[in-house]
Amino acid sequence: MKIPLYRQIQASLKEKITSGIYEEGGLLPSENDLCTEFNATRMTVRQALNELVREGYITRQHGKGSTVSASRKSLGLLSLKGWTEVVVASDRHGKTLVLEGPMLKKMQNPIFRPLIDTESDEDFIFFKRLRLVEDLPVMYEHTYIPNDNLPNFIEEPLLEGSLFRTLLIRYQIDVQSMTQEVRAIAADKETANLLKIKTKSPVLHLLRKYKTSVEGFFLYSSIYCNTEKFAISSFN
Amino acid sequence: MKIPLYRQIQASLKEKITSGIYEEGGLLPSENDLCTEFNATRMTVRQALNELVREGYITRQHGKGSTVSASRKSLGLLSLKGWTEVVVASDRHGKTLVLEGPMLKKMQNPIFRPLIDTESDEDFIFFKRLRLVEDLPVMYEHTYIPNDNLPNFIEEPLLEGSLFRTLLIRYQIDVQSMTQEVRAIAADKETANLLKIKTKSPVLHLLRKYKTSVEGFFLYSSIYCNTEKFAISSFN
DNA sequence: AAGTGGTCTAGACCACAGT
DNA sequence: CTGTGGTCTAGACCACTTC
Questions:
Q1: Inter-chain contact A202–B207, Cβ cutoff 8 Å?
Q2: Which residues in chain B are contacts of A233 at CB distance < 8 A?
């Protein structure tokens, strides 16, 4: 039992939230109930709950209880804020078109170099995806995943079309945080075509490195965003 | 004694960090030392320390201790990542030119409307500032601050040129977090001139709402960034 | 009044860092 | 080895929300 108890509680609750056993907007069991369920004390349960607050899965209110966050966790960043209304972007909402991949590919793209420490000549699992909100293309994304410890990844389709959920359920890999560089650039021809904007229009470029629950295992994404109708918003 | 003990400990340590009593890169007293100093138990002290970690003031290592974060807290977001080297942007580094203000002004700019709930016809304290890194203009910023509870703000110069530090020291207002919307837009003439780029070049536009330790008191900024040489990077 | 989360105590054992 | 932070227990009292 090397994994701390509060981490186990945290993971268990997270799984029940993402799988829908605990519904959005609903209440979690009270701290005392969780204490008996996991045979732990309140301080331990509270540590787990506080981690879930920090990760954006739940909110808490004093005399009330722990509420499952609506629109699920935003991964610490990134949600799309709409013109007048709020549209939440996640692998579950909107549409995602896989334009290329998954396939094995070397990472020839030098823009990731500053983010990567060691790995160089390895093969990566590669995706090209286009994400739409309300049928408007808003994100064009290239994803690179180190081809380690992911047996049969390319052969099997993604669970519910979600990469993160696939990693969590099939490989017990939890994407926990990320760092990113943000720039404004002029869209090249391919990007402009896909995002249905004029070439050289300003687009947001996000260069991302995702940290996972597996030590040393990171995901990389290069994302081009059309922000004419939707802005990227972030918190904290 | 309505303020929780761990908040008092947190505030005390924060003050000693920002004022330089605990030096950057140095070690804080151990948890047990803090226990005796504040007459509290380890759980209480740890709660204060964990808050400081969350706010970016310190980092902690297992067998070692609590280290005061170098280059001070990054406010959860925003640091400028350079060409080859890392440059940290804060009110202490780089240069900041005040182009206009502080002055009283109504907020006529409608772009903030989505961020503001109630306030409408009030006067705001207004700034126009240009920030340079390595003598290159990289950020052009408009700041609006509600003119409540800030006696003599306009009359007195900023402490060490830092708005946040001034709010903290003179008014005990701590800027704790923010939300922002990020877009890529084409620079207008004024912005392009100030940032020394061509008109219609892609620039990053950040619309920010800062949350403070005072309930209901927020700061607002509209920022245009030249990301040709420096990218905005964010964490988590 | 009952149930909830917020704070706090006074211990304990462990794993990691530096000597 | 000592000292540090990481985890955990078994209680306690309080403030808030709901009924």
A1: no
A2: 179-182
